[in-house]
Write a structure and sequence with these properties.
Layout (H helix, E strand, L loop, with lengths): L9 E10 L2 E11 L4 E5 L6 H9 L6 E6 L2 E2 L5 H6 L2 E3 L12 H10 L16 H13 L15 H14 L4 E5 L7 H12 L6 E5 L3 H7 L2 E6 L2 E7 H6 L1 H6 L4
Parallel strand pairs: 3-8, 3-9, 6-7, 7-8
Antiparallel strand pairs: 1-2, 1-4, 4-5, 9-10
Length: about 250
């Protein structure tokens, strides 16, 4: 077994996933340092979200290893990875639309408690978490909507709620799957500012098609195509690489 490399927040080693004989990720290996800002790019169908699903535990790889801060998490459930400092958002928003913003964030915080959540208890029983949820909503500019159901708020505000839920878990590695998708220019600016304000204690790995905005946030870039890593490294070097222009930019 390959020993962990000191100093990395997230290591992905020879990750493979196939569906019906079709490879979606092929021998993907990445190493991300604490606090790093990494952008994952590639055309539709390149395997980007499938890679995120394997890192978060929503999907098991056929082979390969995943390590968080040196600990092998390949066989761990998503909630166990969350306890080790991994959090994520999804390309398709996953919120409880009939519940309030405050309750959505509180539920996210409940998942990190060492004690088991009792469904018969009202969320008001967990008063400390409600206070924390309101503080987090304030940080993303949504405290004034805390008592509103998610179904009443705009799409861009839902994106902020999802980001708030991910940040509520105080992640050391945060995966953002197309956080700017479907947003207006004003909403993009708001989300971009929130991502830029994430403390350096947290490594941020982002999939995004809005290249102009995403490249402003990224330090390193990985290009995927047909499930393989094509180019990986410093942002400017990757963007200038002929393979990036050919595969992603169509030049």
């Amino acid at each position: 077994m390959i020993p962990p490399t000191p100093g990395y927040a997230l290591e992905i080693i020879d990750l493979n996933k196939a569906f019906g004989g079709l490879s979606v990720t092929q021998n993907v290996s990445l190493a991300i340092r604490p606090g790093e800002r990494r952008l994952i790019i590639g055309p539709n169908g390149a395997g980007k979200t499938t890679l995120f699903n394997q890192i978060s535990g929503d999907m098991r790889p056929n082979s390969g290893r995943i390590r968080l801060f040196g600990e092998d998490v390949t066989q761990l459930a998503p909630y166990q990875r969350a306890h080790l400092g991994l959090s994520r958002t999804y390309q398709i928003i996953t919120l409880f639309t009939d519940d309030t913003l405050e309750h959505n964030v509180t539920l996210g915080l409940l998942g990190l408690r060492p004690t088991r959540w009792q469904m018969w208890r009202p969320l008001s029983f967990y008063g400390d978490l409600s206070t924390a949820a309101r503080r987090i909503l304030d940080a993303v500019g949504l405290l004034h909507l805390a008592a509103h159901p998610v179904s009443d708020i705009a799409y861009g505000e839902k994106r902020r709620v999802e980001l708030a839920m991910a940040l509520a878990q105080k992640p050391r590695v945060l995966l953002l799957d197309e956080p700017l998708a479907g947003l207006s220019n004003t909403e993009r600016s708001t989300i971009k500012a929130l991502i830029a304000s994430i403390p350096r204690e947290t490594a941020v790995v982002m999939i995004e098609h809005d290249m102009d905005t995403a490249l402003d946030l990224a330090e390193t870039v990985t290009l995927l195509n047909y499930g393989r890593v094509i180019v990986d490294g410093n942002r400017d070097v990757v963007i200038a690489d002929e393979r990036t222009r050919e595969v992603y930019l169509g030049v």
